Model the fold of this input.
Amino acid sequence: MENKSFILKVIIALIVLLIVIPSVLVLTQRNDYLYGITSVAVLSMISAGVWLTFYMGRINIGQGAYALIGAYTTAVLVTQLGLSFWISIFVAGFVAAFFSILIGIPILRLKGVYFSMITLTLTEVAKLLAIALVPITNGPRGITNIPLPGELSIFGLTLIPDFATMENSKIGFYYLAVIAMIITFAIMYRLTKSRMGILLRSLQQNEELASSFGVNIAYLRVISYAIASFFGGVGGAIFINLTQSVYPTTFQVADSINYMLYTFLGGLAYVFGPILGSFVLYFSWDLLFIFKEYQLLIYSGIMIILMVFLPNGILSLRFKK
Amino acid sequence: MEQILLNGLITGAQYALIALGLTLIFSLMSILNFAHGQMYVLGAFVTYYVYGKLGLPFIVAIIASGLTLALIGAIFEKYLFNTVLKRSVREESSMLLAAGTAFFLDSLILIVFGEKQRSVPALVDGVFFGEDYGIDLIIPYNRIVIGLIAIVLIVSFILFMQYSKPGRAMRALAQDKTASQLMGVDLDKYSLFGFALGAMLAGVAGSLLVTITGVNSGIGGGISIQAFTMIMIGGAGVISGAILGGFILGLVEAFGLYYLPGDVTYLTIFVCLMIFLTLRPQGLMGKPWG
Done:
């Protein structure tokens, strides 16, 4: 019974996301909202990584670093090696995951605030590296004019048309971002229901206890951190194809903090929290644009008020435990 | 050589002052105060107006900066952090709030003070030439005075924490909340006091800074990261660690900036820090696992 209503909800959500929203926005010609929802999809995908890291009891403020790694990987592959965008986003994800394993093995031993602080500096390191590695990254000038994603075909059958030939490439990006988001959260949802999800939750509560029951905590931590960074890398790769340029400052400490905020605001106890959190914060930021210099003041004011009254996230309103 | 060493030590003394406030707040309430850098900038601006514009003595300006920030810290603690910590399921929720207050202060500072770089006249004029005494040193008297004030403040803070009643109470709370509450330490009262004191230290440090390098609205975030670096080097929540971390960062920065370009210096510092923390996660003076 419960299963049935869940499937129904999923179907409704998919119809709304894939058919209703894009057709309404295209018909009303609201390209700005189309861009907004595309960004929210990418942002919530990157924030999903933060959520997953939290799921094993670590607050990750370094997601921007992996997004930047993913972004630069795609940019270099597409502009310098002429690799197809569709392959390079996966490469970007794997490169980000590879670095997260290298970095994660030592730093995941840190707990609590120590882990958070070191991930905070991680974003700064990624930025400084991007500035310093001039031959690859072109230094502070960044890589611009990244071509639009080309067509993807298997055995002569065109699966995805060339974005450049599309009448409205924005709708192409919308589908790209939203489908990537749906896949991400499907994986996350499945993960939390799996054996690994339960083990991760046990890490969140008591690592020593979990370890004493024979759970290989080090392995679990590194693997889930790698998955989290994979999402970050792919998200970063998609994002820079949306803006068609990447700079060392594309993802910086403030962004990393924002991903954490999206996750917190949606509600840490809920898989879909990052989507709601990024939606609310992104659009409230957008709507507050009319207040000009007071934009940030009002935005942060809203954030503080939300936090004081709903410290467990917006979703805690609905799911009273 | 001596020149770089002395520059590093003077910068280090100011850094230690910033790190002390951050570590105090952290050890008492497990809050990572992201807004620490912004509080520092605010302190600098108060001094800019009191000392630079109104022309009152510098001592008045330091006190004004300290008191303003103490008041802001107290308000933050009482109406925001304490409330959230009580209502929230997880302690980490305070991080969102801390980031929110950092953004809030950042934009408030920008709106109120604008984005111009501000500086104030030096406390004392003149430059110390070491050549007359046979050492290779050139240093403005102003910097020496500021460094000395910072050291005096650090020493008085240590004495306060070591021997006064509130100091002892706060150290007890940092060590074991439950046990010290059972011994009759008022948690709410001393959390409030500690947060205000931590914010005050940030303000005072900012007040010293403005006389040397000036201040502008945008530097808060960078200062926060530096402060986090310091308490990671020394070990979060430990007073001696914060002081040591401040001096180490000051020295490393002075030497690095002399021998390497700016960006590479910071890259090296962060990479070294990561390697160091994997070997010793609790920092130099910290307790294992914080």
